[in-house]
Specification:
Keywords: Membrane, Transmembrane, Transmembrane helix. InterPro entries: DUF8028 (IPR058341). It holds the Pfam family DUF8028. With 93 residues, this protein is mainly α.
Length: 93
């Protein structure tokens, strides 16, 4: 005699969706939607910042406050380069 076992029905979805999973997907979509504009802004900030700190270099870095401003702008420029380095490489222009 064949052994009859009840079939498991794995294809049936639960009646209520998992709210944590929905929240995670929503968060991922939100973060993905910010990637393009963030890279765009960072790319152009990295392009423009040298024009801002160039006058500081022309003035000289003898004053500690000017030196601090210059180093802060330089660090911001490096950060913007890091964030915006992928802009335009994936078909965006």
């Amino acid at each position: 005699m064949p052994n009859h076992t009840p079939l498991s029905n794995d294809s049936v979805t639960p009646s209520s969706p998992d709210p944590d999973r929905d929240q995670e997907q929503c968060t991922r979509r939100f973060i993905h939607s910010l990637k393009g504009p963030t890279q765009f802004l960072s790319f152009w900030v990295a392009i423009a910042l040298p024009f801002v700190y160039l006058p500081l270099l022309m003035q000289g870095l003898g004053d500690p406050q000017v030196t601090l401003v210059f180093l802060t702008l330089l660090a911001l420029n490096v950060f913007a380069l890091y964030i915006g380095h992928g802009y335009g490489s994936d078909g965006e222009a």
